[in-house]
Amino acid sequence: RLPVWLCSVSGRHSVLFGTDSRLLSDWKSERIFHLYFYSGQREQTRTAHLTIDTHSHHWEEARREGPCSPGQRRPALEMAIRTRWPGATVSWNGTDPFF
């Protein structure tokens, strides 16, 4: 009834899930939505709350930083999310990105 993805990110198993069942049946719900990530690893003390924006403008981000800038590198979890929503931006909502 709720969207759940079992992930293997950087060789570690984890769960990415949403609490909005509309993500399963209404593509319009995929504009801006929330996902939660839990890896069960010792270094993760609480579930990460992520905000996904699938209609962000990737070219605006590209203007702020050069292509070789360390800021252009993305955590593996963000790249995994982008396999489902190409070009989406991921906000970690105050959590330091990991993976």
Automatic annotation (TrEMBL):
Keywords: Hydrolase, Protease, Thiol protease, Ubl conjugation pathway
Domain of life of the native organism: Eukaryota
InterPro entries referenced in this protein's UniProt entry, alphabetically: MINDY-3/4_CD, MINY3/4
GO biological process, one term: protein K48-linked deubiquitination
Catalytic activity entry: Thiol-dependent hydrolysis of ester, thioester, amide, peptide and isopeptide bonds formed by the C-terminal Gly of ubiquitin (a 76-residue protein attached to proteins as an intracellular targeting signal)
Domain Deubiquitinating enzyme MINDY-3/4 conserved: 1-94
Pfam families in UniProt: MINDY-3_4_CD
EC number(s) on file: 3.4.19.12
One Gene Ontology molecular-function label: K48-linked deubiquitinase activity
Entry's family note: Belongs to the MINDY deubiquitinase family. FAM188 subfamily.
Function: Hydrolase that can remove 'Lys-48'-linked conjugated ubiquitin from proteins.
Identification of the protein by name: Ubiquitin carboxyl-terminal hydrolase MINDY
Native source organism of the sequence: Sylvia atricapilla
